[in-house]
Design goal:
Blueprint: E1 10-13, H1 20-33, H2 38-55, H3 60-82, E2 87-91, E3 99-103
Length: about 110
């Protein structure tokens, strides 16, 4: 599944602190608000289960590490798969506090 062009240059998070919990909330809220295909919905359900399991850990450091892994491996993977054509998902090259879908030409050195 790919998102439409209306999501090109679309900011998912403007989190200046890059707090893991805030980033997860921003990403999960976006994914819950859009219409997903069945495969992506199933991936999202697995992520929600993993996040729920992470909350059951006793050690705060382990919770943080587990959530960070879920964010960068599972959640970001979903976003990479649904990125609109010609876009990548990640931080904006000029403003690292912006996370979203950006046109690949932003990285072009021959502009």
């Amino acid at each position: 599944m790919k998102l439409g062009s209306e999501y090109k240059l679309y900011t998912i998070s403007q989190n200046t602190t890059l707090n893991i919990d805030d980033l997860i909330d921003d990403c999960m809220n976006f994914l819950r608000d859009i219409e997903l295909d069945q495969e992506t919905s199933e991936k999202l359900s697995k992520v929600e289960q993993k996040l729920h399991q992470a909350e059951k850990l006793k050690n705060t450091d382990k919770i943080y590490k587990h959530k960070k892994k879920i964010l960068f491996q599972d959640i970001f993977d979903i976003f990479e798969n649904i990125s609109p054509e010609g876009c990548y998902f990640g931080t904006h090259p000029a403003s690292l506090s912006l996370i979203g879908f950006w046109d690949k030409s932003l990285f072009s050195v021959t502009r």
